[in-house]
Amino acid sequence: MRDETGFEEYVAARWSTFSRLALLLTASETAAQDLVQVTLEKAYVAWPRISAMEAPDAYVRRIMVNTLISTRRRAWQRHEVPSADPPDTGTPSPEQVLVDRELLWPLVCALPPRQRAVVVLRYYEDLSEREIADVLGCSAGTVKSTAHDAMQALRRSVAAIPTTGGVQR
To answer: What range does the domain containing 67 cover?
Structure first.
C-alpha cells in the first residue's frame, strides 16, 4: 500500500530545495517547474522503495539529474533549439533574481548537461564528490574529471569575455 501522507509530507518539506536545484540545473523557471513535476511523478511511483532508503533526497536528486540529461538528449536528437529570447513571464521569483545576479551563471548554463550538473551539485548544492557520484551513478574519479573539464571550459569562457576599462561587459 502506498504511503500517500508520507509522500505529501516529504514533498511539502523538500519542495523549495528541489525547486531551487531544478532552477539551477535548467536556468529557466518554467523548465524548472516542469523538471520538479516530472521528478516528483517518478518519485511517487517509486515512493514505497524510496521512503525506506537511508538518503531519499540523494535518490530524488538522481532522478532529477537523470531526467534533465535524458530530456536534453531527446531535445538534441529532435534538433530543438531553445529560444534565445524567451517571453516575459512576469515578476521573477527571488530564486530567479539570485541566479540572474551571478556573473558566471550564463557560462554555467552553456555547459553540457552532465558538466552543468556536476558544477551545480558541487558548488551550488555543496555536495561531496562521493555524493555527486551517487547522484550521477558514476565513480568519484569521473566526477573529478567532469568537474575539471567544466572548470576548464568556464575559464576559457571567462577569458573570452571582452573587457573595457577593467569592467566586464
So the answer is: 1-79+94-101
